[in-house]
Design goal:
The chain has six helices and eleven strands. By secondary structure, the chain is α/β, with parallel strands linked by helices. It is elongated and about 70 Å long. Bound molecules: adenine (ADE). Adenine binds next to β5.
Length: about 230
């Protein structure tokens, strides 16, 4: 079963991982998730985890030592470890990355705060043959830290693990799974009963029972919706 370790100074954020589909996947033994407090690896009376930036500038930078100790402790086994460092400067997370990471046996999420983690942590683990390092951003905006970004990534990753979704057919036609001309296509709009609501009717073709016409209609709607997002 895949193992996901999270290192953060705010472990309480991850209470959400006990809820819903992810909570059920954990309870069913489909994924093993553990949350670790970075401060357990800090030293001194103040258990400090950050310091002022070399070269000057606003804010604080997370010190490399607690991160090094924390990551080392989680990578004692001989297997391959994928270290995910959350940062707005990282590669943009998308469905393809979620799919790739869902095939990894051991992910370690490093949730930085403040102005990020001393860059030598990334450099050090990139140079280790038993590590792959991924600097990842969930979008072009700045969060207060990597915790929420990790929750977003884990939700997208875990639902792709075989056995997690009750009906795996849900994965086949969903948004961002189909790629046309290098662009991911979003899903067509969905409707359920009643057929008429507040003077709005469900498109006639969906009630027709004509599967070919329904497929063509949905494809056209998906393309229209994808274009309208640009
Ligand atoms: N930390 C702060 N902002 C972030 C973002 N957009 N993605 C990932 N980690 C972050």
């Amino acid at each position: 079963m895949p193992r996901y370790d999270i290192i953060s100074i705010f472990p309480d954020y991850f209470a959400a991982l006990d809820i819903s589909l992810v909570g059920k996947a954990r309870a069913a033994g489909l994924v093993d998730i553990a949350v670790h407090d970075l401060r357990d690896h800090a030293e001194g009376v103040h258990k400090s985890v950050d310091d002022t930036p070399y070269g000057g500038g606003a804010g604080m930078v997370m010190s490399p030592e607690p991160w090094g100790r924390g990551i080392d402790q989680l990578s004692q086994s001989s297997q391959l470890h994928d270290l995910v460092v959350l940062t707005p400067a990282g590669k943009k997370f998308n469905q393809k990355m979620a799919q790739e990471l869902s095939e990894c046996e051991h992910l370690i999420f490093a949730c930085g705060r403040y102005e990020g983690i001393d860059h030598r942590v990334t450099q050090f683990y990139m140079a280790q043959s038993n590590f792959r390092v991924h600097e990842v951003s969930i979008g072009d905006y700045v969060l207060n830290g990597g915790e929420v970004a990790t929750l977003v990534m884990l939700e997208a990753i875990i639902r792709l693990i075989p056995g997690v979704l009750g009906n795996p057919d849900s994965l086949v036609e969903e948004s961002h799974t189909l790629i046309v001309d290098g662009e991911s296509i979003v899903e067509y709009p969905s409707y359920t009963k009643p057929a008429s609501w507040r003077d709005l009717s469900v498109p006639e073709v969906l009630l027709s029972g004509n599967h070919g016409a329904i497929k063509a209609y949905r494809e056209a709607e998906a393309v229209k919706r994808t274009k309208s997002r640009e």
